[in-house]
Fold this sequence. Notes:
16-stranded mixed sheet, F-box_dom
Amino acid sequence: MKLSKFPYLVQSEILDHMRHSDLFWLSFVSKNMKKLIKSSQITRFKYISHIVYDDPMLNKRLVYIPFKNIPENIMRIVEETKNGFKKKSETVHFQLNVSGKVIDFRVTKQYNLPEACFHPNDKESAIESIHNYFLDLFGDTVECQWIANYPDDFIPRLHNLSLCISVGHSYISIEEMEALETFFASSPVLKHIRLETYTSELFSPESKFYQAESIDLIQHSNTVPTFLRHFQGRQAVFRCSKCDILDLMEFLNRWRSGEGSRKLEYLKIILLSNDIALNEVLNVNGVKHIDATKTPPRHTFPKVLKPVFFRITDPITSHSYIVRDTDNRVASVSIREDTLRFGVWKETEEEFLRMVK
């Protein structure tokens, strides 16, 4: 069946019912086919939140489009010598011109998903070509997330590419912290950072570490006040062995006054030791309480780093809240056992209270 034989509306209807991954591969058939896909799917492609270059497993990096229920896998990216490429059995091989660069592909019976294969020396240009093709097809405003382990994985510097890094091992020395600081300074603002450290100090107040949109931090020294004072991002999960209740109270007071954390959407602090009376946080001036007989609204936010599952922040349903003086915005405050959750609403106090049932 030749798609070109049908009227444009029929062609569009057929393409509307195809998966994004199938449209991607179909676009290589011809320039006219790619043009048809781009023109007929403009509205649909606008709903692509982002494309993920996932953390590599066994030297294979999965590329997929995350959707609400299940991700749509597009391809795998594989670094491999030519000899290794040719030795694979039960494999279908083909070549495609990707943004002006000819790249080898294969499909194995094991995965039944096309794999882009290239020599390690060609990885930078090959990945750039694949990335540019995504932007050309799906739109140059679509965000792409590159998930990597620092310092082991290759990290490209490309247009519309956000970095999500996990520091590869738990014990970070002072020297490694300094190297990490240099990496942050030379990088664009990161989308997500995961870090565990035993050092008694975090980064300098001017560090771009605090500008990351999302941070998952495990800290075995009391750096809570430093982190809470300087974090400028949207979401943070902080696990700490040591913490002073006064530091948490200071954070609530600073947020309420509008002095800090202006972009904050969600904060979760987990105490790894149980010798702190977290409930005392609710005694800070300005904490308000909803009547115990009523049901408060449920706070959630889409995660900055969206895994395949658990794509929203942990729900907060709390009778306690505070109001920011500068704009009357509300934040729910929840204390449960060893965990403090703090969720900022878009609503003002009046709008928030109308959602109470």
